[in-house]
Amino acid sequence: MTEATAIATAARVGRRAGVAGIVVAVVAAAIVLAVSVGAVPVPLATVWGIALDSVAPGLVTPHWTKAQANIVWEIRFPRVLLAGLVGAGLGLVGGALQAVTRNKLADPHLLGISSGGAFGAIAALMHTGLFLGLLTVPLMAFGGALAATLMVLGVARFAGATSADRLILAGVAVSFVIMAGANILIFLGDPRATHTVVFWMLGGLGLAQWPHLLWPLAILIPCAVWLVAQSGALNAISLGDETAASLGLAVPRFRLQVFVVAALVTGVMVAFSGLIGFVGLMMPHLVRLVVGGDSARVLPASAIAGGVFLIGADAVARVAMAPEDLPIGIVTGLCGGLFFIWLMARKR
Amino acid sequence: MLRLALSTLILSSTAAAAFPVTVKSCDREVTFAAPPERAISNDVNLTEMMLVLGLRDRMVGYTGISGWKTLDPVMREGVAELPELSAQYPTKEVLAGAGADFFFAGWNYGMKVGGEVTPETLEPLGIQVYELTESCIHLGPKAKSSMQDMYDDLLNLGTIFGVGDRAAALVAGYQAQLAEITAGVDRTDPPRVFVYDSGEKAPFTAGRYAMPTALIEAAGGVNIMDDLDKSWAEIGWEPVVARNPEVVVIVNYGDVTAEQKIAFLKENPAFADIDAVRNDRFVVLDYVEATPGPRNIEAVRKLARGFKAP
Questions:
Q1: Of the candidates A136, A193, A206, which has its C-beta nearest B116's C-beta?
Q2: For domain A3-346, which architecture applies?
Q3: ipTM score of the complex?
Q4: Contact B91/A67, CB-based, under 8 Å?
């Protein structure tokens, strides 16, 4: 190894460490800010005293009430972390699907996965009741999302939809069919419960509890690792199916693999948060402006940006109309849409 | 004065000795180690149940009233010193922030199935929940709505707060009043009654599991929609016309006044031949009278009067 390449390598390692440091700082800052705000004012020192006390008991003398401790540790922390996980998952999936379909408008909700989740959730909320306890809605939503994925795969095979465009069309068509079914469930249900359904569909993170964080985490981590590991193949496929095939990639098979992984992640996120729009669509576009088009960078960057964005959006949702929680879909749609318009105008 | 203090002391010590108590709330058995001291109730009718049991000093606030309907003067006086913590349904943070140890609510009365605030989600926060019996239908099968649902809620609250005697006396009083009100009611030919809550394209009405069905039956009528297997639901106008109600009960709340609802029914030619419209037989019940709570007795009185053959 020559001296020059050694220096270049050292510089690259140093730069990576710097980037990692900035990312950790930004994520930590978002969590700190989000945990500090809410409908009930809790002084900053108290918030961090409680956090410290929960992580390492005995370091600080408790000077807060049980109510404050509950609010910070049992309500805000799990909620903020869930926001981060859901945002990261949606951002990641958006990036992967946009690459594998070569479609700038591909989005985790486009391929029938979310309507499947909605169908499952509506069935639980309006018809079956919570027969599995607190996890009924998430489990039914996840089941619905997986069933919808199988339907899309079935339709894709039945209609020979192996190309990117036809796969999307299959997803959209299945989505319409499932939404019609979901609307039948709404129609047959108690109209006063439709309120619940509307709120579920607009998304919200109020269900967050510590033990539940395990599920999105357990799915997100392996799927994220796998997707990032496939970034070479994703880059190849984004040049065109023929190019990717000439590079030795089994294109239809790979596309379906990515699709199934995306469905898993989206399914578990939708299960815990309802339908949160725009994050999966917008984050990849946003980060490409900064890191370029290489999937190896776009995917992790989308995940991080999505997590930070959703943590912020949830904080706004909790504060804007306090003491009521605004459905988070309203915040992401409004902020996201306006931001996107501004971005488009600037990049003209 | 001393004797009074002494007797309350004895009373409270006997009450304390009775704890822990267990009551049935929908499909759960809930055990209270001690009477709650920082209770919150949601909606007008539930808050009135708390007040009528004399539990204001055990409450830290109420929720979900001004967001939907206005507080009437009687009520305003009753809750004068209590803060409304949230105009609509409360969030977990609001309930925890008030330091609550008890939440009296119902499904679609402050809690949504699968929502953020449920007995399970409040448990880790040390907040116990008692659910309005009428609303249990949203969780699973339940018997048809009856006056006993409301009595059970009062008796259970009495047990939970260690004021069982007070609750029993109250319920006995209501039963006596009800017996008096309905003493002269002729039940041989119960009038057909339709509950009109709202809606113009399609009416929103009370089915088998909603409180008005019980009130109508107590007053000697029959809800034409009591075969509707729901609590509150939207139906079509055709069955209303076909079943030809003799009396229409208007539920009065929100932006459309009772007069406007009656005018709507009278002006539509499709309803011209409905007995109730032809004979101008309408009974107006306020929201708080038509939902389970202490004012149900007054509601039955109004209905019984309205059902009397003209």
A1: A206
A2: Orthogonal Bundle (1.10)
A3: 0.71
A4: no
